[in-house]
Amino acid sequence: MFLVVVVGFLVWLALWLRADGQPTGTGDGDVPGVVETSATPLPSPLPLPREGVAPPDFRLGDCFKDFAPNALKSTIVACDTGHSAQLVAIYRYPATDSYPGSEALKAKALEACQAARLAPAANDYTLNFQRSYPSRTSWDSGDRRADCYVTADGGNVINSSVLP
């Protein structure tokens, strides 16, 4: 009986881990219509810090110094240095989709935040979820991402990645 329970638990665990919203197929992390919650490949490449990075160039797992979610440019830093935010989930709309409206975009960004899985390190900080999504103008210029960040109110106080 004990063996059946253990095997059942392992099957459940495998299915649960597989259902984490990670895109399947190409493996390049740019699959439209899927919430991305695992930073594969790694966040922005070295050297860091990188100043003046625009939101379309943010990668899942990137950490930001002095972050403002509506800023046109941000500074990406190594996650083991002081930062105020980290990109923890992305939803990519297909390029062929028409503009769904701000309420639908806001809801999709919330869905991305709800899908985000955080590492135990997140418990060391007081964090908030913040969402970012395209305006009508940015949608018309090709922006198809709804992003979810965790942010710290106290400034650049996070000193590790909060993603598993």
Explain what the structure shows.
It is a single chain. With 164 residues, this protein is of the alpha+beta class. It is 22% helix and 21% strand. It has 3 helices and 7 strands. The chain has helices at residues 2-18, 102-115, 136-140, and strands at 35-36, 50-53, 63-65, 74-77, 85-92, 127-132, 145-152. Strands 1, 2, 3, 4, 5, 6 and 7 form a 7-stranded antiparallel β-sheet that branches. The longest helix is centred in the first third of the chain and has 17 residues, at 2-18. The protein is globular, with a radius of gyration of 17 Å. It starts with a helix and ends in a 12-residue tail after the last strand.
In quaternary terms, these chains amount to single chain
Please count the helical segments. 3
C-alpha termini separation: 33 Å
Amount of beta strand: 15-25%
**Helix/strand-derived class?**
alpha+beta
Radius of gyration: 17 Å
The amount of helix comes to: 10-25%
Main beta sheet: 7 strands, antiparallel
Order of helices and strands: HEEEEEHEHE
Count of individual beta strands: 7
Residue stretches low in confidence (pLDDT < 50, at least 5 long) are: 1-28
Question: Averaging pLDDT over every residue, what do you get?
Answer: 82
Shape: globular
Sequence-ordered SSE layout with sheet pairings:
Elements (H helix, E strand, L loop, with lengths): L1 H17 L16 E2 L13 E4 L9 E3 L8 E4 L7 E8 L9 H14 L11 E6 L3 H5 L4 E8 L12
Antiparallel strand pairs: 1-5, 2-4, 3-4, 3-5, 5-7, 6-7
